[in-house]
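A reminder from the course coordinator: this example appears on the midterm review sheet, so study it carefully.

Given structure:
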């Protein structure tokens, strides 16, 4: 038993040290969503495309190392927001992707004034932006009112963003030339960002595939490998299930995209999950009291805990590998379907705009 425990600690320590020796870049995405009366479709697109965006971001690498992904969410233009400029932070930069999903699904529209300069200014002031010039820093602001509305001059804010290496990318919900006239293109090019226009009322129809049911079942199996700890552990574990359901309610394809995210390192829950926490710091779990641990670890010694965690780790890795294999087959199937123009679906939407510009800007920062 002692040899098993010692070996496990050595393996964990070596893996941790190896990870530390590899420079890990950051990708920071700030999503600024217009939540005025006419933007229900935009919010639906943001919810539907979240996992596709995360999968795109998590596929970026530098020297074979995936980046740390952090996402922030703001809503603006909702008259229910108490801020004088109708701007509200939903979440600061976080790697807790379930929180990001939760915040997007909680967004509601209401009448108000949409001040693009004000929400960008707030995001630059309040968010903890990386100071590393090698990191990829992106703002995505979407809406449909003139970009130059409000008390804050977007041009001066754009200058600040550019000086900090933050790309402002604009997504106008309407006709391309109208967005140009209303300064949305200038709001992007002034920081070397990208300008897009979309039909925000277009429904995102995720194409079902023969692999979705298997992936969804594997996702349920994957959830059994998560063991909560700490004061918020139970709540976080429950939220994981809720966000699974939210994705599933948008379609089996969206649920499959979320499952793929959960099979990657970007989906890390070291703040509440024993397995992820053990990988990050193998000593932390052994310092917790029984009332801070799930039932299967209560009353166990260090060696027994290590064996249980190791078994869960191996089980999780196996399920994640199966999800990734099926997801590859799913992508092959979708590529064949999408070659038929009649099945191409919505081409201009929130998610495709984010992913296209993210890939382009990532290349400038040396990402593969």
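Designed residues:
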């Amino acid at each position: 038993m002692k040899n098993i425990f010692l070996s496990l600690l050595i393996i964990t320590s070596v893996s941790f040290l190896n990870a530390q020796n590899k420079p890990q870049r950051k990708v920071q995405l700030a999503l600024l969503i217009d939540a005025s009366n006419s933007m229900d479709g935009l919010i639906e697109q943001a919810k539907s495309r979240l996992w596709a965006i995360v999968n795109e971001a998590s596929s970026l690498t530098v020297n074979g190392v995936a980046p740390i992904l952090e996402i922030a969410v703001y809503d603006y233009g909702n008259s229910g927001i108490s801020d004088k400029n109708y701007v509200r932070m939903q979440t600061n930069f976080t790697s807790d992707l379930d929180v990001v999903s939760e915040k997007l699904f909680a967004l509601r529209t209401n009448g108000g004034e949409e001040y693009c300069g004000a929400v960008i200014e707030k995001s630059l002031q309040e968010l903890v932006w990386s100071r590393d010039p090698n990191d990829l820093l992106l703002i995505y602001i979407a809406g449909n009112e003139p970009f130059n509305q409000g008390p804050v001059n977007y041009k001066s804010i754009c200058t600040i963003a550019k000086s900090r290496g933050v790309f402002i990318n604009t997504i106008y919900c309407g006709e391309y030339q109208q967005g140009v006239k209303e300064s949305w293109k200038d709001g992007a090019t002034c920081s070397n960002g990208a300008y897009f226009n979309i039909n925000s009322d277009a429904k995102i129809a995720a194409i079902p595939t023969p692999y979705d049911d298997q992936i969804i079942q594997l996702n349920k199996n994957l959830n059994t490998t998560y063991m909560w700890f700490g004061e918020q552990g139970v709540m976080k574990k429950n939220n994981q299930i809720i966000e699974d359901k939210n994705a599933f309610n948008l379609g089996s394809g969206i649920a499959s995209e979320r499952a793929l995210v959960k099979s990657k390192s970007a989906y890390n829950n070291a703040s509440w999950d024993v397995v992820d926490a053990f990988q990050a710091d193998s000593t932390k779990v052994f310092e917790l009291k029984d009332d801070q641990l799930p039932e299967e670890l209560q009353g166990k010694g260090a060696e027994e805990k290590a064996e249980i965690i190791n078994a869960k780790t191996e089980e999780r890795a196996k399920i994640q590998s199966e999800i990734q294999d099926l997801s590859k087959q799913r992508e092959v199937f979708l590529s064949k379907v999408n070659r038929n123009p009649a099945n191409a679906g919505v081409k201009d939407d929130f998610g495709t705009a984010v992913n296209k510009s993210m890939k382009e800007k990532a290349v400038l920062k040396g990402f593969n």
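The first strand starts at residue 26 and ends at 34. The radius of gyration is 22 Å.
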